[in-house]
Every structure is written in structure tokens, then in C-alpha cells.
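INFO batch 0412 | record 1 of 1 | parsing
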Amino acid sequence: MINGTELRDAIISGANNIAKHKTSVDELNIFPVPDGDTGTNMSMTMGAAARDLENAQGGIGEIAHKAASALLRGARGNSGVILSLLFRGFSKGIEGCEEIDGTELANALGIGVEAAYKAVMKPTEGTILTVSRVAYEKGKAAAEIDNDPVYVWSAICKGAAEALEETPELLPVLKKAGVVDAGGKGLCHIFDGMMSVFKDHKIIVNEAPADVSNLSADEFFRNAAAEFDQEIHFTYCTEFIVGRDPDCEKDPQELRQYLEGIGDCVVVVDDEEIIKVHVHTEEPGNALQAALVFGQLLTVKIENMKEQHRKAAEANEAAKAKAAAEKEPLSPAEPTEEIGFVSVAVGEGLKTLFTDLGCAHVVSGGQTMNPSTNDILEAVLATPAKTVMVLPNNKNIIMAAEQTVPLVKDRKVIVLPTRTIPQGLSAMLAYDPDVSTEQNAVTMMEAAGNVATGTVTFAARDSEYNGHKIHEGDILGLRNGKMELVEKDIIHTCSKLTRSMVNRSTSFITIIYGEEITEAQANDAYNRIKSKISNDIEVTLVNGGQPVYYFIISVE
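INFO prediction complete | emitting C-alpha cells
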């Protein structure tokens, strides 16, 4: 039998295991644009449950309910939402139980799988859905042989792994890319992490180290010193290069021995012409004086590490305070107005655009940074309206937004499934306060459907996609999410992509430039486009300030 404590530890272990492997799961995303965030989304979703369960006590039904609630609110991206649905169904299957056997374990997972399939409008096989379904089927079959929970969960893990290997056969795009489904792989890591507790009573620890591979020895030390004040034994980081005196017969190792007597972190490297030295000491003058015996000083750098640490600590505290202020929960507002709007966007310019168009709140998020269900829920509850329309503006945020609907009891929530920023802007422009909410929902989505969206970004990895050979760093032009151009120049790509989207019915073009584009570059793109199209088409240039996308182009 499995009790509440074991399930609690298993979920924490699963969260740690996906956290350890999130980068490799992210890298399985086949599309070369910087959207490889499946592992990150699943890790953050599971992390929400792990935090809530850290000190939780109770029967297995109570623990499952607490985990499901945290997962739902912390769900990010489609993969995170599906993961939360699996656990929510699982929770319903063991509601009120103190402990469960293998059959109940498998049956509960089956309820979760059914809930996940129902939530997806067009379930696609070869994804996390397939992996979860096959895992359940294998677990159910195993329970008929042996009711032991460990035996059943072992079959579930094996079934998930086997189904994962078959995903390329079900989705040709995976096979062509030579990868398995990212969401399915993430689920296998979670199941394996849970198995470690069920079988061996061992919580997997997330021991992913910080990346220090590109740091010099001194940078590494300074990073450590900034975090552990007590490890700064000497005040001055002293670095210098000595041009060797050809008449000096002393061995540079004598200089090393002397420096080790007055400091630590000593590095002395020499060749026929120079001696390069690094030392932490209270006596930088003596270190330099000792070096003069070997030749002339060519360069000298002395830094006070304690002062650096003090400034770094102040900056760190200021950054923490700013982050805390930005993340301060929104206060719920009484629903006094008839209608209000919440949108999702990132970039100060875009946030201002949506605010100016009437959005009460703009949730920070977008490509590579999907907000959680709870982030959207807070914004909805802080909007003082009886009906709140939510515009996700990204296909990977729609499901998370939809999860807010059953969570809100004192007002109506309508999710308009806008998939891009231009769709969201056009939908807001189409709002008419003189017609009903239902009519507005139809009209706004019709407006969104009449907009073509172009995006200019970069290739995050080498790949071959849709007939295009792509190298990391290439500039990519996408039309409504589909690859159109692979180029080398950002402005040329923007101009060429925009012109390819124009047709006889085009009346308006909006060019939204991102945080990495200068005003001069933006004007260059504007002028190139303006010179190549009809004078009857109105072209507007907007500073969106968005990351990831150099340009977002709206054509309608």
C-alpha cells in the first residue's frame, strides 16, 4: 500500500527529477526558434506542487488534492496544463483515501488520462497524451497480475518509456527530426522520480550544478566570494604581468612560494618573455615589489574584493526588492463594471498598447516565458468586472488561461483564443461597448482571424525543418507560425517577409520592433517596406520592446 507520506515524497522526487533534466527536455523541441521550453514549463509546474507539499501531512487523498491544486495554479504552457490535468484526475480517483493499492493507483491514473484527453480539442497521438495513456494501460494490466503498487508503478514507468520510443512513428515531424516527444520525455522523468520513492524510499535530489565552465579562476572565486562573505580571507585581488629580465636567473617558482606566504589563490604562469601572476593578499605592494626582481611590471590590476562584495550584496538586495515589488500579488477587486480585459504580453511598449486599448491588466509572458494559470487568475480577480475577457496571445498559453474559468466563482471568464500579439491587438480594436458580450466575443475573434502575423527571430539550434537547412544564429522569418525565410540579415528578413504577406486586400501594416532593435534599424525596416508597397497601405512603426522577436508584423 502507498500512503500520503510516500506520495508526497514521490511527487517531490518527480519534481526534482524533471528539474535535473529540464534542459535536455527543452532541447527536444523540434522547431528551431527559441521556444524550447517544454522541460522548463513542466519543471516549474511540478515545482509548484513540491513547494506546497514540503511539510504536508495527511492521507494519500488529501496529499493528492493539495498537489493537484498547486499544479493547476502553477501550470505553465500546454505541457504543464496537461500534467496538472493528469494529477487532478488522479486526485479525484483517490479522494478520501488514506492509502491505496496497485489497482487503485492504476485506476486513478486512468481518470487523469481521460481528463487530459478531454481537455485537448484535437488530441494528437505521439505526444505526452499517448505516453500517459499507454502507461496507464500497462499499469492496469499489471494490476491484474500483481496488486503490489511498486509492481504496478514499475509497469507504468516501463509503458511510458516504450510509448515514448514510439512517438516518432506516430508523428512524422518527430521522426524527421530524429527526436522523441518532449512532453512525453518529461513525463517519463517525473514517473521515474516517483518510482525512486515507491521502490527504494529515496527522494531524487536536484543536483544540477551552476554553469561555471566559462569562468576564469578569478571570476569563479569572485562569484563564490559574493555569496559567502566568510570565505574572503584577503582583501586585495592582485593581478600583474612581469616582462622578464633576461639577466635574471631566478626561478619564477620562488615568486610563487613568496606569494603563497602572504596570500592565497596564487597562480603563477611563465614563459620565456613574461610571468603572469594572480594572488589574493593584504600586501599588494609587497607582491609587486617581489615581482620587480624578475623584470619590469607591464600591467597591474588591484581590486578590493570586500568592497566589491559589499556593492554586489547591495545590488543583489536592490534586485530582490525590485523583483518582489514586481511580483507582489494583485489585490482582488469587486466586479462592479460590466466587462473588463486581461491580456498576456511582454515588453513595455506592448504592455502600454494593450493598456491603452482598455486592458485592466497585462500579464507578463509570451514566447519562452509562459505565465502560470495562477498569474492569469490573479489578473482576472483583480479586474473589477462582471465579465472578464482573457487574451492569451500565444498558442502555448491558451490552455493555462482556460484553466482559470472553473476557478473563478464571482464573475464570468471568457478566454478568446488569440494565438499572436497582432491577433490580440486586432481583437481589442474590434471591441464595441454598444453590443452584447456574446456578440463582442464573436466579432473580436473574427477580427483576430483576419490578421496575418509575421515574426522575425533567430535560430536557437542547427536543424532541418520543412525543407530548410538551418544553422544556429540564422535569421528566421515566420508567417503565421510557419517558416518562410532563412536569411542572415534582420532588416532584409523583415522587409522581405512583410512584402510577401501583402495582397490586394491589405490596408494596414503594423511593424512592432523588439528590445534588440535600435530606432535606426527600425526606421530602416520601415523605409524599405514603405518604398516597396502601395501608397494606399498605411504603415505604422511601434516600439514594442519585446524579447525573442526582433520584429512582430501585423498585416490586415
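INFO post-check: The radius of gyration is 29 Å.
INFO record closed
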